[in-house]
Amino acid sequence: MATIPSHNFHLRLPHMINQRTQYSLSLKPHFSHSTLITFPTRASPARAMSTTDEEASISTRLEPESYGLTTAEDIRRRDREAKESKRLRDTWRKIQGEDDWAGLMDPMDPVLRSELIRYGEMAQACYDAFDFDPFSRYCGSCRFTRRHLFDSLGIIDSGYEVARYLYATSNINLPNFFSKSRWSKVWSKNANWIGYVAVSDDDEATRCRLGRRDIAIAWRGTVTRLEWIADLKDFLKPVSGNGFRCPDPAVKAESGFLDLYTDKDTCCNFSKFSAREQVLTEVKRLVERYGDEEGEELSITVTGHSLGGALAVLSAYDVAEMGLNRTRKGKVIPVTAFTYGGPRVGNIRFKERIEELGVKVLRVVNEHDVVAKSPGLFLNERAPQALMKLAGGLPWCYSHVGEMLPLDHQKSPFLKPTVDLSTAHNLEALLHLLDGYHGKGQRFVLSSGRDPALVNKASDFLKDHFMVPPYWRQDANKGMVRNTDGRWIQPDRIRADDHHAPDILQLLTQLHHPSQLL
């Protein structure tokens, strides 16, 4: 972990950025209300690390005199990234699940690994940007404006622009998921920021790297608190009852997930439209804008961790069920959900309907994570088929969807082998495991040099002899800044353009009338 002098600098870099060449460039003062006191770099060191490198890996430090220098390892890594970018450009449909990732997970395809980490970091951004502090009047909101989200998090050259923020009403029975301020004067009493919709930009390098334009939807989940599982009603109900345009009443999903996705509070500026209405209208707008451009390929990718993984599956299904992945000219846009530590969402008929619509789902899980085994601990896809047929109509008979990539934190030489329910559910730990996974039975070797210290950002999961403090991520001065009078205050944060789109009502009218759809 880099040592920071007396200035407040932001050092968090995405895994795909060349660490040594970008390190010195990213030493820039950050917004005073959001600067972090310390931040390990994402790629330190830049070489692959194996079991024999365990002691040396995290103890390696960037020396000041090395800043800005290009090493042979840097050149090799850049060459590897260039080759992976070319492969992604040529094979992005397979990476998005065109063939259900056949032959890509064992052995692990390096391009798929890189993309899984990239979309996982998009989900992680929802945690890093969320205000969890109950003593902040903005608790439950995003700490940054949408136009500066990635830059504020130190995600340099992401290639994406945030098109819309997503909010949900807290007036539902998931109290352990929502965060609220202790103060009486707050930004909103009934809403929480829950994610964002982004679209890859017009930069030629981005389009060349991705091979298409990508609409990305990221949902916030839960960091380590697992109490929200107990809040679930564990009760399936037809999705058509919550406004989904589904022709089959046998298609059911967990009622708590449906409520979170579809409920709204008409008296609240942020949640007067449901999360569902917000995401569908924004996808509709972006597909109308880019879907039929000459020579333009388009994809829709949804990502989320934990409860956010459930929302990712629901919204991916919803986009396809509504036909929003079809352009005016009839072109079908692939819809993919990458989820991390996500729970089961619906019943067998829900799974079958997702497959009928062509939605692809890849679930990355820690084998020791209880969330990925919930709900439906007893009646699920692993039960005998005859039993599932008999119990198929019961309101607590669940089935996972899509393909699964199982990982085991006990295979990593960096992590404590103990099975702790909260740490086994940690997203940064999953991204660390992805970086070291090469296939079943193969040795754990970090591929991109992604900094293992990130695991302890919001957990105590790294082995103690690496001497990385647990829960090290914190805001400078708890977000307080000095105003022009020299007084310490919490600066204003919410901006008008972070509210709902001005034409959302018009888009909703079109959604409710199929004749006006794409």
Describe this structure in words.
It is found in: Plastid, Chloroplast. It contains 14 helices and eleven strands. The chain has a domain at 93-407 and 475-512: Rossmann fold. The chain is α/β, with parallel strands linked by helices and 518 residues long. It has a seven-stranded mixed beta sheet, sandwiched between helices. It has a two-stranded antiparallel sheet with strand order 4-5. It has helices spanning 19-23, 54-59, 72-95, 110-128, 149-152, 204-210, 227-231, 255-262, 275-290, 307-321, 348-357, 385-391, 427-436, 504-512, and strands at 160-169, 191-200, 213-219, 236-238, 252-254, 298-305, 335-340, 360-366, 403-407, 481-482, 488-489. Helix 11 (348-357) links the parallel strand 7 and strand 8.
Give me the secondary-structure topology.
Elements: H1 19-23, H2 54-59, H3 72-95, H4 110-128, H5 149-152, E1 160-169, E2 191-200, H6 204-210, E3 213-219, H7 227-231, E4 236-238, E5 252-254, H8 255-262, H9 275-290, E6 298-305, H10 307-321, E7 335-340, H11 348-357, E8 360-366, H12 385-391, E9 403-407, H13 427-436, E10 481-482, E11 488-489, H14 504-512
Parallel strand pairs: 3-6, 6-7, 7-8, 8-9
Antiparallel strand pairs: 1-2, 2-3, 4-5, 10-11
Helix pairs in contact: 3-4, 3-6, 4-13, 9-14
